[in-house]
Structure formats: C-alpha cells, structure tokens
Write a structure and sequence with these properties.
Layout (H helix, E strand, L loop, with lengths): L32 H4 L1 H10 L3 H16 L17 H11 L4 E6 L4 H13 L3 E6 L29 H10 L4 E7 L3 H8 L4 E6 L9 H5 L14
Parallel strand pairs: 1-2, 1-3, 3-4
Helix pairs in contact: 3-4, 6-7
C-alpha cells in the first residue's frame, strides 16, 4: 500500500524560481502538492468556477498586481508601492462593497479610530465593534481569578462571537480585523458571515509585528527554537 504523503511546502529546499508551483517545468519533491495532490487540485479549480468565488479570486489577483509599479519594464524588478490599508480600500472598491465591518481589539482603539477615518474617507460605511463590547465578565466562561490580567478585579472578557454577530446583524459586505488576540480572531472567523481580511494581528511584545520574532530567530529570539518553558 502506497504511503500517503502530506503536503510540506514549508520544508521545500528548491529555490522559488525552480519550483513546480512557480513554473510548469519546475522541480518537485516528496510532499509537493502540485505534483502529488492532483485530485484535490482538481476540486479546487472546480470551486473557482463558482461565479462568486471566481470573481473574488479574480479581483484579489488584479489587486495583487496593482500593488507594484513599473510592471511594463523588462526585465522587471519588483517595486511595491501600496501599504495593506490601501490594498484593502482598493480591493473593497473593486468588489463593489459599500459597508465594511471593523472588528478590533480595544488595546488598539487609537489605531482603530485612524483606520475608521481612512476607510470612511474612501466613502465606505463603517460598522465598528470593539472586543470588550458587552461587558461580559471572564468568570462567565470559566476563567479563574488567578488567570486574569488584573487579579482580584472585574475583568471584561474579549467577546469575538458578539463582535461577529454585530457585523452580521449590520449585514456588512466585508470585514477587517485589527489586532485581535490568538484564538479570539479564530472565533470571529468561525461566526462571521461576510468575507473577512486581516489588517494587523496582536503581538504585545513586538508592537504588533509578529514577524519581528521570526526575523530575529537566528539570534535574539533563538530561544524560541529550544522548546523550553
């Protein structure tokens, strides 16, 4: 019986230009889904034939190209020119979205106000929902006093299910997540109805730039690879 090999793109040692996923005559390896998952790929390609999915994917690809300048020059050297907030605005416009949900962490309420202003200046109607909305105590979901940030005090739980339901009730066309915690963002994705993207994620140590720890994993953050508490 042939052993089933799981996809493992992250361990591929082939340089990107030479990979089978990057060019038709590219190289493959064990665990390469381009070479070994033909039936799954067939199903995925069929899914793109659904009109809504096809148009969403088409506009996303067009937006990707529009983020680079001077593409008519050959040979082309990549020259990105648009920050993600602008990408979000342009993509939402391409899709004809009018009402956007801004689902944010209260720890980034200043940033949320700026994001709301930027989105609003582009003509979008904004429905914003902060993570502490509802003022539900953490004890309601079984959090012990010793497990809270402020021990011995009232502490409102983050309420991602409520946030999702708020933007659902408002019938937003598209949602933007800003700074939610690990797990809380997952619950928003589980319960939200409209397509949703992420502007930024929560990383308390790096100023919400989680890749900083990855970039420094060869020196200052090498301890992350030691598997020790």
């Amino acid at each position: 019986m042939k052993k089933r090999v799981s996809p493992d793109c992250a361990s591929c040692q082939t340089l990107p230009p030479d990979r089978a996923c990057m060019r038709p005559a590219g190289r493959t390896r064990e665990g390469c889904p381009t070479a070994g998952k033909g039936q799954v790929l067939k199903k995925a390609r069929e899914a793109y034939q659904e009109p809504g999915t096809r148009e969403f994917a088409r506009q996303a690809s067009i937006q990707e190209g529009a983020c680079y300048a001077g593409r008519e020059r050959k040979p082309y050297v990549m020259h990105p020119v648009k920050p993600r907030i602008l990408e979000i605005c342009e993509f939402a416009s391409r899709m004809g979205y009018k009402k956007l949900g801004l689902v944010f962490c209260m720890g980034l309420f200043r940033e949320a106000a700026v994001v709301r202003e930027i989105l609003g200046s582009r003509g979008f109607e904004i429905i914003s929902a902060g993570c502490k909305a509802g003022c539900v105590p953490k004890e309601e979901i079984g959090v012990k006093d010793s497990e809270k940030i402020y021990i011995g005090e009232h502490e409102t739980m983050c309420n991602p299910v409520f946030q999702a339901m708020l933007v659902n009730e408002a019938k937003t066309d598209f949602n933007v997540l800003l700074g939610l915690c690990v797990g809380h963002d997952s619950l928003v994705f589980k319960y939200v109805e409209a397509p949703t993207t992420v502007l930024a994620v929560k990383d308390r140590v790096t100023g919400h730039n989680p890749l900083a720890a990855i970039y420094a994993s060869g020196n200052y953050y090498a301890w992350l690879k030691e598997h020790k508490e």
